[in-house]
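Morning F.,

Quick status update on the modeling queue. The single chain you submitted on Monday has been processed. Sequence for confirmation:
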Amino acid sequence: MVKKTESTAVASKSASHVSTESDNVGFFDKLSGDGLENVTAKDLIVPRLTILQGLSPQVQPKKPEYIKGAQVGDICDVGMNEVFEQPLLFLPVLFMKQYLEWAPRASGKGLVAIHNDASILDQGTRNESNQIILPNGNYIAETAQFFGLNLSAGGRRSFLPMTSTQLKKARSWLSLSTSEKVKRKDGTSFTPPLYYRTYHISTVEESNSKGDWIGFRIERGPTIEEYAGPDEFADLAKEAIEFKNSIQRGELRGDVGESDDHSSEGAM
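C-alpha cells below.
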C-alpha cells in the first residue's frame, strides 16, 4: 500500500474511483476479483496523462469526453476522465521512445502505426512546420514516454508521453535523473534507478511564432523513502519494478490515443 504524507499528497479534482467501505464491504470482500478471472495483463492498457489544450475534448461541453470543471492547462488522466490539482506527484519507472505515424488530420484516420526504430525518420523529409513527412503523406511524431506511478491517484500505473516542443522537457527530466548520485558507506557514489525519486509535474504557458499552448514543468520531488517512509518504501519500489518489467516484457502498453502533437494542429 502506497503511503501518502501530508506534504506530498495531492488531491484529485474529480471524484475518487476507489469505493469506500460500506455495510456490505464484507460481502464483496469474500468475492474479491469474481468475474475477472480471465483478465490478463495484455487485456489492460496503461492510462495516459496529458495536458488539456484548447482543442482537447475534455474542455468542450458538447464533446462526449467532456469533464465538468476541466480547464485548459489541467493535467488529465484521459483514460479515467480525471483531472488533478497541481503539482501532480509522479514516480517514473521506465523511459522509452516511440515514433508514432499519424495520417493527416483532415483524413480523419488518426494513428496509423507505432514504430520503435528511429530509422523511420530517415524515410521522410521535414516540412515548414518541422514535421517528418513520409512518402505516403503521413507524418511521424517522435514521442518520449515516461511510464510510472501516479501518486496523486494512489499509485495508479500511468504513462506520460511528450512530443514536439515537450521533447526538450523530456531531455531535461532525464538529465535530472541521470545526474542523481547516492553515496555508499565507503564514500563512493552511484546513479540510482529512475524510480529512486518522485517528481512534481505542473504546467506553464508557452508560445512560439506558430501559437500558444500549455507545456510541462518537471521538478524534483521527495525520494521514495522520504515519500513512503522507511517501513513502506520497499513496497513502493517493488511495485515500480514490477510495472517496469511488465512494460519491458510487452505485457502492458500505453494508451497512445490522440497525441498532443496531433490534436494541437502542430502548434506545439
